[in-house]
Amino acid sequence: MAFFEMIFHELISFLGISQLIEVCRTGNYKVLLTLNGIFSVISPILPFLLLLEIIRAIFYKRFKIEDYKMPFFIFVANRFISRFISIAAVVFCIGVLEKYALFNTSLKWYWFIYGYVIWEFSHFIYHYFGHKVRLFWCLHSTHHAPQTMNLSVTYAHFFLEAPYADVIRTSICILMGVNPPLLFIIMFIDGFWGSFIHAGENLIKDGRLGFLNSIILTPSHHRVHHAKNPLYMDTNFCNLLNIWDKVFGTFQHEKRDMQIEYGISREMNPNNFLDVYFGELYCLWKDIRKAPGVKNKLLYIVMPPGWSHTGDHKTAKVVKQAFLQQAKDQSI
């Protein structure tokens, strides 16, 4: 009986409806007018969109269990491994760094805009290094391993990635004066949008979202980010506002004449949990072990994925340059 009760509570937690159930039980509907009440209404949207995505895939006979199996296994594993690590990391950073903030903000609309721009900058920094530093890529690659795009991919992360990401993002925001209440509101909104942009074609066929594609980052842009096509590698690092991708030259629209290929560039078994979860760490260990000298061993840890001590680099930058040169030669 205890097992089924645990499963029930996990399901309620996943669907994000525990607060709504409590509201219905107590009849205190006024709480829905508070900030927590608004969050409790928004929280179930993504899980139910995921269920809708699966139902549509089944209805149109496009459902494949392997498209959702690995993200589900990763989600279950992370629930037991890292349930509270990320929260602890955020609280620690706030406690240590808040007194060093450049200035103090408040819950005003103009500070919200400022805070969101700073948050997107901090997200860009974390995400950029997640692709450009081999060790951090080992943590982030689990999220890029799925070879299709759907809402379940938002749950596919290595258990240490969220704490590492939140330490960077929280530290930058707190030091730049984004106070904790404002930061938590921004994190909630950005977390919701950051999950939604993983919507696949079974839910939203054209992820450009009409005119929004020219204003913010849409599911189309995030599909590009998850692609292993040479042109699309290491692009669209932001979540909602594309300002920092445009500033640093990493912004890329989806091309209508280019079929997206999802996944990571190394050969792997997308249905093997150990390969998806630990594969990049194992490959890094092999490279370090065979590298001559301490300097090269350390460089494998901090240089971009694809860097080689032999000079035969296969980084995203090298691959993209080769692709663009080939396209240029063919057009002549």
Automatic annotation (TrEMBL):
The chain crosses the membrane at residues 38-59, 80-97, 109-129. Residues 113-250 form the Fatty acid hydroxylase domain. It is a multi-pass membrane protein. Keywords: Lipid metabolism, Membrane, Oxidoreductase, Transmembrane, Transmembrane helix. InterPro entries: Fatty_acid_hydroxylase (IPR006694), Sterol_desaturase/TMEM195 (IPR051689). Its main location: membrane. The keyword Transcription regulation does not apply. Pfam families: FA_hydroxylase. It comes from the Bacteria. It is found in: Endomembrane system. This is Sterol desaturase family protein.
